[in-house]
Amino acid sequence: MLPALLPTEPVFLPVQARYAGGAGPGTREGEHAITANNRWSRVQLTFRHLPAEAWCCLEATLAWTDAEEGGQVLDFLLAGFDFLAADGSSLDVEQVPGLVRTLLDPHSAWIAGPACQPAGSELMRAAPVRVAFGVPPQARGLALTLRSWRNTETMTIAEPRLRPGGPLRAGAFRRRRLGPQPEPLRHGLVPGLGLVVRGQIHAARSTEHAARVSLVYRDRDGAEIPPPYPGTVAVPGLGAKPGEEETGLGAAINLPARPQARRFTLGLEPPPGAVSLDLGFCTWEEEGERLPAVDLLGPPEVALEDRFRLESLCGDDLLDAPGFLARLSSRLGRDPGAEAAWIPGPGEAGAAALPLARARALRSEAERPVALRPDGGLSLRLAGCPDWTLPDLPDFREDPFRAVPSRAVPWRLAYQSLTWLPALAEAAPARALALALAWSRANPWGQPADPLSLHPGALPARAEVWIGLLALPGAGAAAPVLTGEAVRHGFALAEIVGQNTFGRSLHQLQAAAALLALARALPRLPFSGYWDGLARESLRDGVPALLPADGHFPDSSLHRRLDLVTLGRALREPLGAAAPGPLVAARTEAALLELSGLVDPGGRLPPFGEVVPGIDDAGWIARLRGTAGLVAQRPAAQPAAASSSTLLPDGLSARHETAGRGWSHFACTFADTAPQGHADCTSFVYAAGATRWIVEAGGSEQTEIGAARHYLLSARAHNVAVIEGTEPVAGRGLHRGSLALPGAVAHAIETDVHGPGFRHLRIFVLPHDLSGLAVIDRFVARDGAPLTFRASAQLAPDTLVAVEGPRRVQARQGGRRLGLVPFAVAGRVAGLETVIGRSDRPGTMQGFVVRPGVLEPACALRYAVTGRGMVCGGLLMALDGPAEDSLARVLAREELAQFLMQA
């Protein structure tokens, strides 16, 4: 159960403060004033001696003036995190739990505006700021930058400090520890062009010979081209495997670590005839020698030499697609018109697998996004929005749903992706080609008609569209434009993939998948081998991070996980048996088997994190498994049973089916959370009698801006407990054990999402027949101060709710009833209320659920438990009197009390 409370942890205070852009000290000690000067006004605070591989929480007080007009924005202030090695050098860490990668600072977290802060802050014009993050294993210090962003008046940050928490889980940071034997990274080459590789290494101590890069160039047949190579050193025996004679020569480039965290840039010049490169990072020491502690921080960035970067190729000219091809050919030193040889025939383009299109087909059954009207016009049905008539001459700035942002953003992404053109091409290929050419004319590179067309949700999918249109028999006259767009999109995707722009994300893998398709469809393009190598290396590195073998997924969304599995299945053909095909297939199959067992008897996945609206989850999984109907609900090896349960590293589910009573289902998540994700750690859903009672408010994928998004991401939209006056921070949950009880089982989950000052345990007591359940929260304050927590239970929209007294609520739905009773174990119940459609300010918005395109009011039941030092209490819910009495007897048992209270 919970470990004993540790002695009061030290609090780290900044040892230095620097100001720029108009920022300066505040009127009181420990206060910093930041003026309204976007990006430039900032204070940088330096912290030292941080504990490595542990959670830390930034705590401060944000204050503003009455005249502040930026209260509604979610990016009111930007907190930037630059982690430092022991010698003060900056660490370019790949990913940090609790933070996101940004351009201005290595990692960041957004701080929302005044109106988004908790209730009561509007009166004080001040609110607490808390940002939790994991400290990288190489870090010993932190340079924290607090920047002006959308504030319109001067605001202040008072008493910033770092409070350390518990250790991170094993594997929270991906270690790339270097050894004597390199793991080769294979990259394709463009004949005659150099390659630029960038990255950073960290050594435990500063040294001139910390590591080396081993290089092996190969020719078209895969045979090694013997060194020496330009810009490398060749050492006898270097690279020889243990037991081999040291007769060969190895080529290497030295990597110093002075300072400890040292960035490197390798300008590689391939020898004549080289078509691929095996690149390996390793130590100078050999097997059996004492190895230094040297890490490669993040995957190396790979790019072509600068004159073949997209920005350099386009320059300031608004090139059309054929003009881009011509310039590219000229840069390669080819004769005018030589680019015509790169244009694929319909057979070549048609033979290329399109993984993103295949994934869309697996996600949902055949959609009809476009329809020909009797008058010859076109109607588009995109992103679940109503039909819209396409103008005869679209300028691709269209935004018919701009009045409803939750619809406008997904619609524009679908519109700009052009994924509706292949469907149109089945009925009217000439019309589809004409619209593709119109889009190309309206979007010269560098001046898009709609900036959202460059969004990663549209760009990779559109790249595949050009290949699909090139496969049309009548594409001949349009082929130069289609090929030019395909190549131009390929250069954009290559830079995204090579620079790891979107890190560990579905967008990054989709970009790699589209780049792989382009490489296959343009076999005579000199860049196709380079693109193929980039895509494969990105998938080899990214898929294990997003579909980890240990089950600790970085996203609580099961739908996002299913999207990853679907993409993995769609990549089976283009990847084939070559690496990383077997790896992707194995991770995909394992995750699919797990997801199949989580579908509830009604055919839905538990709706945690981002949720895809209007999708048949069971049908989606069945298509992936090659089965039909609700067979996808269980793994094939699991027989049908009256009751079953599943415990995962980041979630728990249980189900029960009885003839005559209908099915029952429970699920909860305790996956990792982050500022940009949902605060849903320990949230749960419950259904009984084939009726959904406790539901999630829904995902925010279709609501990317404004108060609605802030609400859907916040704890108020989820069935969780929150300490009064604070918001949860980044963290995770951990299953601490189960207790068998007469007719029931109790599960304990420990979390750290409430910050280092509190210990939190959530216990679910589940009867075997799921005729009810009890959810119990136990909070312990380190300082023994007064403590109140509030918890929510979101009821389904069609539920009628009656408050029958200060300690009982009756919910009714379709002739069925559910009784809900709050109770206290330690402390006292401090209130019970229902909230429906509260929307006075973003920070207090509650009582809504997502319906396609809109938020619909629904009842959220809120209860509070208060006490001093330690409080414990929860909510009992049951379908009828006998079920409630049985559950109450279970809750009164001595062994459960010991289970709750042991520390």
Q: Strands of the largest sheet, in order across it?
A: 31-32-33-34-43-38-37-36
Which parts are unreliable, with pLDDT below 50 for 5 consecutive residues or more? 1-7, 241-249, 630-641
Outline? globular
Beta content: 25-35%
Compute the number of strand runs: 43
Helix/strand/pairing category: alpha+beta
Count helical runs. 19
Mean pLDDT, to the nearest integer, reads: 91
Major sheet description: 8 strands, antiparallel
Q: Into which percent range does the helicity of residues fall?
A: 10-25%
End-to-end Cα distance: 6 Å
Radius of gyration: 29 Å
Walk me through the structure:
- Helix content is 23%, strand content 31%.
- It is built from 19 helices and 43 strands.
- The strands form 9 sheets. It has an 8-stranded antiparallel beta sheet, covered by helices on one side. A 6-stranded antiparallel beta sheet has the order 1-4-10-6-8-7, with no helix packed on it. Strands 12, 14, 15, 16, 17 and 19 form a 6-stranded antiparallel beta sheet that branches.
- A hairpin with a 5-residue loop joins strand 7 (100-101) and strand 8 (107-111).
- The longest helix has 20 residues, at 479-498.
- It is globular.
